[in-house]
Amino acid sequence: MNKHQQQTYSTIVSADPYKGDFYVGTFNTISSIASPSFSKDQYSVSFLNTKGFISALIGISKNIPDDDIYDALENKVYEELALDMAVEYHIRYVEALHRSTEGDRFFHVFVVDPLTLEQEYVKIVDSIKYIDQLIPVPLLLKSLYVKEIIDSSDVHCFIYFQENDSFFCIYNEQEFIYTKSLKFSLLHMHERFCELIGEQIDFNSFQIMLSTEGLNTSNSDYQKNLIKLFGEIFLHISDIMAYAKRAYDIKRFDEIFIGTSVGSVLGLDEYAQTYLGLKTAPFEFDYGFNTNGLNVDQIHQLMHLYGRLQAEERYECNFTIFHRPPPFAKRESGKLILIAAASLAGALLYPGVYWGLSYVEEFHHAVLSKEYAQVHIEKTEREAIINLKNANKNAAQVLLDEEKTAYKQKQDTLVQVHEKKVDYPMKAKIISDFTRSFNQYRVQLKTVAYIENNVSKTFIFGLTSTKTQDITALLKNLTDSKRDKYTFNLELISYDEEEKSYLSELKAVIK
What pTM was estimated for this model as a whole? Predict the structure, then answer.
């Protein structure tokens, strides 16, 4: 996307693929737009939430040349994260300069499943046709430091609650350190709050209560249970902070910025400061944008700020596969049209040349006709010789075909023997391979059976999971990646009330 940074765009459009909303920015004004359309003069930005990627800190030797860094990181990522080798994950990275040692360089590596890009961004691409920048959400925060909205180099934590996801992120010395998806999104908060109060309230009503009354709601029962809910949330956050301190050798956290996509929650800053014992500030920054007094999600404003940065000022970690079309002259169709136009122009400008060539060709034709009469006699003689050789060739071919048939029969026999002795599938290896796939999709293996007869060889796996989506996602992955080796059958997913989990029986028939 660097090639587009030299261009000037009249507008920037930010897209939230999870809520399906768009904001358009012109100069310093940001406004919501219900149905954006394609325009070659607009720069488009979107993001991946923390559930949409895997992040890890990976170290490699400083002796590895820059041209080989990607391959080295890719190999270590597949190995250390136990990724499925059959899936071609999208991998991007930024260097962690503060972690370098005498012998190693360290990189923050981000890994995205290709299905995530293909499925979750379809609707917004239908509207705007392309995405110039597709960024992991914690890297958007870099723009706060570049634009000096935050001008200190302390250790900062950012906590932001969104409708479908929430994230915890650490920056130190104005550089990204660590990020983690929180299990309490606004939707999860709403679900847990309804459990605590023992009644079901509308999700929009819950959001309005948070944005207008906050933790000081006039309903005493609601207030008591909100305090309990956020106690559970900050206990979860406290555990993550303790881990990050150990893992990244952080001495202390200087300040925490906390906010939500529905706006400021009254009393949340004070509660966080009391619970965590750290200086706390609202995750609400003055970006210099005119929003006409409306609440605009901080993530949308960060995307507009990020879109205004120069390439060298931001983290280049672009996951987009939805590129804008190249200029007309660089497209294959454009090249063809330009060549055709040039040819037509040449024909119109130089008709006399083509007339002259036609007379030359007529004279040339007469000369060649005389030569043809002589060549035709020689041709007839050579054809007779060729026909005789073809007859001998056909006779030899019959003998060759018979030998090939005999050879093929012997070859097939040897192949069958080889398959029995060498290629016979090892049961333990197959079960181990499937177990890795089960673990990847958080599906547990309860039972395994193997049936073999003259017709087929079948593994029967008894599976259990807390979510039906994990089982169906596992089945799709297995069907896509192992269809050349197995035929899969999963007829029923049942719910075990006592175990609070879903049960299924997966049959894998070896082809």
Answer: 0.64
